[in-house]
Structure formats: C-alpha cells, structure tokens
Design goal:
The complex is a heterodimer of chains A (about 140) and B (about 140).
Chain A (H helix, E strand, L loop, with lengths): L1 H20 L4 H8 L10 H18 L21 H17 L3 H7 L5 H27 L2
Helix pairs in contact in A: 2-4, 5-6
Chain B lengths: L2 H23 L5 H10 L7 H20 L12 H17 L4 H10 L3 H23 L5
Chain lengths: ~140, ~140
C-alpha cells in the first residue's frame, strides 16, 4: 500500500511539473521541434531542470543498498543497442511531432475534458495493442 | 512569469517526482512503460501501483484545470485524423523503443544510459525532421 501512495503522489507532482513547464501545450512542443521555423526553445529548459535535479538525486539515492519501501531497485540494466530501440524512438518522434503530445502530457490533459487528448490517448492505447499483437505474431513465427 | 522560468521550475518538479519514485519504490518513472503495464499488458502483482500513478497524473491534471487552465490551451487547429495517426505512432513507437520522454529522456539520461541518450537523440531528431516535412506539405501550420 505504501508503494501505491508514493506512486499516486509522484503522479500528482509529475503532472504539475508537466503543466507548469508547458509540456501539456501541443503548440509549444511543436514550436520546440520547429527549429527551421520560429523556434520556441523554452522546453529545452524542462529537460535541463528535470535532468539537473535527477542527475544529482540519482547518484545520492543509489548509494543506498535498497529503496525505502522496496526490497531492491528496479532500474533497467539493458545496454544492447537494438534496431527496435532506434525504430521505436523514430516512430515515437514522428507521432510526437504530429500531435505535440508524448504519453505523460496526453494522459494529464485528459483532465481538461477536451476531445483532443481523449482521441489521442485512445489511439495511443490502440497503437500499444497493435504492438502487442505484432509481438505475439513474431514470437509465434520464431519459437 | 517567463516561459523559460516556468519550464525550468516545471522541469525541476518532474526531476523531483522521478527522484521520489526511485528513493521510495526503487522504480524508474517511464510513463509509456507504466501505462502499457497497466492498460495493455498487465503483469501479475505489478499492476496496482501503476494505476495509482496514472490516477495521480489525472488528479494533477484536475488541479491544473482548476488553478491553471492555461496549461491546456490549444492553439492548434488541425484535422482530427492527424491526432489519431499521432496516437497510434506514439503508442506503437514507445513500446517498441522501450520508453518515451520520461523514461529515456529524463530517467535514462540522468543515469547516463547510452541506450536512453541515443533513443532521446533519435526521437528529437525524428520530431524536428517531421515538423519540417509536415509544415512543407501543409499537415502542420
């Protein structure tokens, strides 16, 4: 239960950060990616702020043997550079540019009760389901 | 307040949030992965905290909607098909590439993961090229 409450609070803080920073405004995201037009560089500072804090905090936290409310850390250790990593990131980048939403801001924007983020999130779930089906088909072909 | 200061403050809050998640739960806050594991491919005994996190995002959204609705202003007028296509690409791409802006862009870069650094460069470059092309062909204004 403690882990769930932490996750809830983290979700709230994360959403406030996204909203305050401008990440929930698609035209700002597209403006940030529009470096060949009228560039809006402000969103670069979101990454600067987030990485600035977490870069230091990560190192302090990892000095501990384990997290406060879990037995162990669940930090990814994969270091293989696979085609899927690049393909996936590329496909994501195209979609991100097209609507100006990445997953977090889109989910947070559902609370504005506008149609646009709702259409986006439903489509995103569909995209994930298509991936799941694709993954199952691939694994059946190569047992 | 200036957009740059708001971006920095909001970014610092995001950094705080992912640090709290790591310190208490020992987890990386990758939103696409958390969402996928809650909605599409639930993992036994590893689902509930994901839903709590998503509820947290929605509660945070309500707080913004109430006190700072500007956060959701839509300056764009576009065809709805583009939003559908974009959602499909983001859903498929983030799961195939194991992460999005939060997991690769914030958590991964902070721990200097080569995978995450290259993924982030890839999706930002793809985004820049796409905005350029979409504006050339008139899909984006």
């Amino acid at each position: 239960m403690k882990n769930n409450i932490v996750a809830l609070i983290v979700g709230i803080i994360f959403a406030l950060g996204l909203g305050i920073s401008g990440m929930t405004r698609p035209e700002k995201v597209i403006g940030f990616l529009n470096i060949f037009g009228t560039w809006d560089g402000s969103l670069a500072f979101v990454m600067l702020g987030a990485i600035g804090v977490h870069f230091v905090a990560y190192r302090l936290i990892r000095r501990r043997k384990s997290p406060l409310f879990s037995e162990q850390f669940f930090v990814p250790t994969a270091n293989e550079l696979t085609p899927s990593l690049f393909m996936g990131a590329f496909i994501f980048g195209v979609g991100w540019a097209l609507a100006g939403y990445c997953p977090g801001p889109a989910i947070v924007s559902l609370s504005s009760f506008q149609l646009r983020p709702a259409v986006f999130v439903v489509s995103m779930i569909l995209g994930m389901i298509i991936f799941r089906i694709y993954q199952i088909l691939i694994s059946k072909r190569r047992p | 307040m200036n957009d740059y200061i708001l971006a920095l403050v909001g970014g610092a809050l995001i950094g705080l949030a992912v640090s709290v998640m790591l310190l208490f739960n020992g987890r990386v806050t990758g939103i696409s992965g958390i969402f996928y594991g809650a909605v599409v491919k639930p993992v036994q005994n590893d689902k509930t905290w994901r839903w709590y996190f998503i509820f947290g995002l929605l509660i945070g959204g309500l707080i913004l909607q109430f006190f700072y609705p500007t956060a959701f202003s839509l300056g764009l007028k576009e065809e709805s098909w583009t939003v559908v296509v974009a959602g499909l690409l983001v859903g498929f791409g983030t799961v195939l590439g194991n992460g999005c802006t939060s997991g690769h862009g914030v958590c991964g870069i902070s721990r200097l993961s080569i995978r995450s650094i290259l993924a982030t460069v890839t999706f930002i470059v793809a985004g820049i090229l796409s905005v350029y092309i979409f504006r050339q062909i008139g899909v984006l204004p």
